[in-house]
Write a structure and sequence with these properties.
43% helix, five-stranded parallel sheet, 172 residues
Length: 172
């Protein structure tokens, strides 16, 4: 889609972004706002200084809900109040090395967090589109240079992070 088509598509649409306070989530929210979307976010407090979320003044520009995606009741309340048309799920424990030191937390956030978001999507008929953003780490690593992964490739996450994101895809 061309930029003008995207602007026309998103203008006035209610978009909920999980992980909105993270690096990618902050950029996504900023772009969606430029396209005229009404943006609501669910995420943790930004954990860097400076945080892109703060540099972009997103706290004043989106309906920001600081919460954990493992808290189903709080998420349900956000969905009930905001009534999103589009949900883009970015929230995750995103670090491979951290997944080794804290695998339970990694699976809890990446799998149960996704289940919670999907449950809210299932219960709210206002949602017309759901996007689950994961990682290329879910695919079997063929150790081939210049090889782009495809959605038809075999899943094969062997470390806790990659495996939890594979589970997130399967749950979706």
């Amino acid at each position: 889609m061309e930029s003008l088509e995207l602007k026309a598509f998103y203008k006035g649409k209610k978009v909920l972004v999980t992980g909105h306070t993270g690096f990618k989530g902050s950029w996504l929210c900023s772009i969606l706002l430029e396209y005229g979307a009404v943006v609501c976010g669910i995420g943790l407090q930004p954990n860097t200084e400076p945080a892109l979320f703060n540099l972009l003044d997103l706290d004043d520009r989106v309906q920001s809900n600081i919460m954990d995606i493992r808290d189903l009741e709080k998420i349900k309340a956000v969905f009930d109040q905001f009534q999103p048309e589009i949900v883009i799920h970015l929230a995750a424990q995103p670090l491979v090395l951290d997944s080794y030191s804290n695998p339970v937390y990694t699976f809890d956030v990446n799998v149960i967090g996704t289940v919670n978001i999907l449950e809210c999507v299932r219960l709210n008929h206002c949602v017309r589109s759901f996007i689950n953003v994961t990682t290329d780490k879910v695919y079997e690593n063929r150790e081939q240079e210049n090889y782009g992964y495809a959605e038809t490739d075999r899943l094969n996450g062997f470390d806790p992070y990659s495996n939890s994101k594979s589970c997130s895809e399967l749950v979706t």
